[in-house]
Amino acid sequence: MPSTLPSLLCLGLYLSLRAGAQNQTLSKPLIWAKPSFMVPNGASVFVWCQGTHRAIEYQLHFKGLFTLERPNDPGLTNKVKFSIQPMTSSTAGQYTCFYRTGELWSEPSDPLDLVITGMYDRPTLSVHPGPEVLPGENVTFSCHLETATTTFFLHKEGTASRPWRRVGNSPAAFSMGPVTPAHRGTYRCFGSYNEHMWSFPSEPVTLLVTGDAGVADLASTGQPSSPDSWELHLSTTKKGLRKDLIPWDYTAENLFRVGLGLLVLVALMCLLAHTRLLRKKTKRASSQERRRRYRWQGALDE
């Protein structure tokens, strides 16, 4: 038993500390692009990464490479920006970011797709039956590009909506409806030869939905109904994201784990002390019993 208790003591402390280290993970950061994830060829863009106020360093990863940024006011800000200028075909692609607090790195952010535009000819965009329709009607946007491509994107400007994708021969048809006033807006289309290199935008087409707006579903997203619809990650826009991450209080969590480890330590020490006390009492009782027997034997001999 005496040799087992120190082993249990060490095992308890080891398991407590290891469990604490394994459970201490940092939430993934947010990532977005300003002014937009669609960047004209040769223009500049800022990629923002938002972690916690405890972050001391950020990394932006792209194609196996990374760059570092540190907050200008550590503890006062929870985000940094990475500048990409100018945007070229070699800098278009998928980005992720991380942040560090102490020796711990966070999980990667959701991927951010940066798209370069203005690489190919300009497509033409039209809407049928026309740019002015009544609520409840169906409309179809047609995107046509002479250059041989089979991938097209339709984008509604000025909102957080993301491009819709069509794969097929030109012209590409984007159908939506029944329309509501939420479908009002200015649309442009792009041709693409891969996910991150798009053509010049088409000339804008403005859709007007007239009539009684009271019967319309203002919550409608206006997305075309098709299995080919493709949404870029929500992380490509700041709108709708939380303004601040509320990180788990890892300091309190660590204190709790340390306290738990100390309780285990105290309990095992008490058990060890109790065992030693019992052993001493047992040895004392055995010694007294031997002395009594010795006296009794001596009296019998006399």
From TrEMBL:
Phosphoprotein in keyword set: no
Primary location recorded for the protein, binned into one broad class: membrane
SUPFAM superfamilies, per the entry: Immunoglobulin
Cellular component terms (Gene Ontology): plasma membrane
Source domain of life: Eukaryota
Topology in the lipid bilayer: Single-pass type I membrane protein
Annotated Ig-like domain residues: 123-189
Keyword tags: Cell membrane, Disulfide bond, Glycoprotein, Immunoglobulin domain, Membrane, Receptor, Repeat, Signal, Transmembrane, Transmembrane helix
Residue ranges crossing the lipid bilayer per the database entry: 255-274
Secretion signal, residue range per the UniProt entry: 1-21
UniProt-annotated location(s): Cell membrane
Family: Belongs to the natural cytotoxicity receptor (NCR) family.
Stated name of the protein: Natural cytotoxicity triggering receptor 1
